[in-house]
Amino acid sequence: MELKDTKRLPELDWLRVILIFAVFTHHVCMPFNGDSWHIMNNDSSKLLDDIMVYFEQFRLPVLFFIAGVSSVILLSKITAVKFLKNKSLRLLIPLLVGSILVIPPQSYIENITKMQSYWQEYPALALNLETNHLWFIEYLFVFFLLAIPLNKLFSSSLGASIIHFLQKLSKYSIGLYLLVILLIVIKIYFSITFQFEGKTIENLSSSLFYLFFFIAGMLFIRSKVIWRTIFEQRFYNLTLLVFSTILFYLYYYSPDLSEYLSLNIRWSIWWLVCCLVSWSALLTILGYAQLYFEKTPSWISLSNELVYPFYIFHQTIIVVIGYYVITWQAPILLKILSLFSLSFLVTSAICWFIIKPSNFLRFCFGLKSKNNPR
C-alpha cells in the first residue's frame, strides 16, 4: 500500500459523519416531497423534491467509496480471517437485530389502518425479517466479502498495472473523470438487461453501481499520486460537477420526449446524467475534504463511533414521530423543522444514553466493546 500511512484519514472521518447526517436529513424530508414513502404529508413541495433528487446521486456512492478505502486499510493491519470475523460480527448481527427490533415499527406505521395493536402484529412483522433502509448494511457485508479476494488481486502484479494505468490517467485534468464512462456503461446495461425493483443485493443495476465506487475506493487509496491529484485538481473537478449539474437539470426539466425517444433511451439518458453527477461529485468532495478537513477533533471521533447505530435507528424514529407530525395543521417548513429536531434528539439520545454505555447493546449494534478499543 502506497498511501502516506494506514491511520484513519481525517477527511474520511468528517465525510462519513456529514453524509450520514445528509441521509438523516433526506429521510426527514421524504414525507413532504410528494413521493411514495412510509408516511406522506397531505401537501407536498415540488421544489423540495427537485432538490432532493440531486443529492440522491452522490450521498451513498461516496459512503461506499469510503467503505472501500476502509477495507484496504483494515486488511493491511489484520488477516483475512480476522477481517471476515470482524465484518460478520459488526454487520450481520446489527442487520439481524435491526430487522427484528428496529424495522417492525416502520412496517406497522405504514400499514397501521389494516392492523391490530402493534404487540399483536409484532411477531409476524419480526419474522418477515425485512431489511428496509438496512439494505445498506447488506450491501456492505457482500462488498466486504468481495474485498478479500479483490485486495489480493490489487496487491498482485496485475493490480500494480491497474494502479499504474490510473496514475497515468490522473496526470490529465480530465483523466479520472473519464472513468465515469465505465460507470455509465455498467448502470445503463444492467438497468435495461436486469430490470429489478428494490434495493436487494440481487438488483444488479443498483449493487454493481455502488460496487464501482467501493472498488474505486480500494484502488485510489493505494496510490499517493492519485490521492494527491484529486486534491490538486479539486477546482477542475468542481467545474466538471457544475457542468454535470447543468446537464442533469436540463434533462430533468426537459419537456416530454416520448414522441421522439423510446422509453429505454429516455431512461438511459437519465442514468447517464445521474452518473455524471455521482462521479464528478465524488472527485470534488474528496478534493475539498482534503483541503478543509485536515484534523479529526474529538467530537468527530465520537460521532464516528455512534454514527452506525444512529443510521440503524434514525429512519424508524423519523417514521414513528412523523406519523404524528404530518397530522398537524401547520406549514410544511414548520413540520420539517419539528420532525428534524425531534427525530435527531430522540435518535441521538438512544445512541448516547442506551447504546453507548452497554457492552451488550454495543455488540448488538456493531460497536466495539468499551473495554476493547481495538
What does it look like?
With 374 residues, the protein is mainly α. It contains 16 helices and no strands. It has helices spanning 10-29, 46-55, 59-75, 80-102, 104-110, 118-127, 135-154, 157-170, 180-193, 204-220, 224-232, 234-252, 263-292, 298-325, 332-355, 359-364. The longest helix is centred in the last third of the chain and has 30 residues, at 263-292.
Quick structural gist:
With 374 residues, the protein is mainly alpha-helical.
Shape: globular
Query: How would you sum up the major sheet?
Result: none
Q: Mean pLDDT, as a whole number?
A: 95
Helix content: over 70%
Oligomeric state of the chains present here: single chain
Question: What topology emerges from the helices and strands here?
Answer:
Layout: H1 10-29, H2 46-55, H3 59-75, H4 80-102, H5 104-110, H6 118-127, H7 135-154, H8 157-170, H9 180-193, H10 204-220, H11 224-232, H12 234-252, H13 263-292, H14 298-325, H15 332-355, H16 359-364
Helix pairs in contact: 1-3, 1-13, 1-14, 1-15, 3-7, 3-10, 4-7, 5-6, 5-14, 7-10, 9-10, 9-13, 11-13, 12-13, 14-15
